Amino acid sequence: MAAAGSAVGLGNIWKFPYVAGENGGGIFLIIYLVCVLLFGMPLVTTELVIGKRSRKSAYGAFRALRNNDRWQWLSWLCVVTAVLIMGFYFVVTGWCINYLAEAVMNAFKGFDAAQLTAHFQTVTTNTWRVILVSVIPVILTEVVLWFDVNKGIERLSKILMPLLLVMMVIMVVRVLLLDGSKVGLEFFFKTDFSQLSPKVVLVAMGQCFFSLSIGMGALITYGAYMPENQDVPMTSLQVVVLDTIVAVMAGMMIFPAVFAFGFNPAEGPELVFVVLPAIFEQMSFAWLSGVLFFTLLCIAALTSTISLMEVVVAFLVDATSHRPHPLDRRKSVLVTSAMAIALLLVCVLVPNTFDIFAEVTSCYLMPIGALAMSILVGWFLGNSFTTWYGKFFVFTIRWLVPIAIVLIFLNSLRLL
Length: 416
Prior knowledge:
By secondary structure, this protein is an all-alpha fold. 78% of the residues lie in helices and 0% in strands.
């Protein structure tokens, strides 16, 4: 549940629906599922294998596996990626908390789409308000990480993840009862091959990597905590299946509502914050629907902020363990929290930093990290996998995954 919580986040509920809406709906879903099977599953397995075999965080894992420092740069890449993602991810989580508070106060009552668009601009440009709501998830995450893995991360994940799934089922059932919801389901599940293009394939691969939190060391960290008798392929399958179920359920929750009320499914990043509140205002039980949706959005966001900060916390503990003044877990949590607050301040106060951090991490650092890990496991550890799945895994991680990542990287550089 903790590892699934790391993967399940805003990428599933916020980003997946609007990306699917912009890229043909059903055809995007099919390509995405293929990418999850061929690339996502092997890369999740790769990170868990690195963590479990090394019993180290991202800092010491690569040195332990190769018994040298040649791969130590990858440790720093992972932690830098996680740190930069913290900067903008806490800001978006702050938006979610702000909207949850406003939904509870019924602040959207009587708003139409134009007013909600203007309100979104007001919320995201109100500097001190954004800072205040963005610090709240940092504090909440700090409280969870203050305890050890069993008492903190695992205990909360076993509550939040089932709660998230139950709430999503309720929302899906509620939306499917709307008149006209069938058209939205057809858009999301009906495959129109005329919409297929290289761009759709590349976007689906990129979304797969982003959604599963691959390439920043989060799953390496959780892999290091796995019991010796826990099966890595089965755990990988569980994580990938749960992550995919949440993404598909998000589409089933959003697209039927969008079509039932005549909105455009290709609204982009504002789909969740502008279109859905407008839809809720036209539904019966509008207040309850809004509160329920933004609660599950906050839960999804917080399960990912926990894994983001845990990467840095574990890194600091391992990196300072041999120093004269090592940092224990709680000191590392305080340092990481301070870093998160400093970075979110940069994202809010310095123009364009939010977009720069988001682009640099998702388009460059995460693909490079995933590529290096696939090469390390596929070419240097591949001979140790002897089962049928192990052989399929090695073939995929040696050949298919690197080719896919290179294509994504070239697309990010606008060379495709």
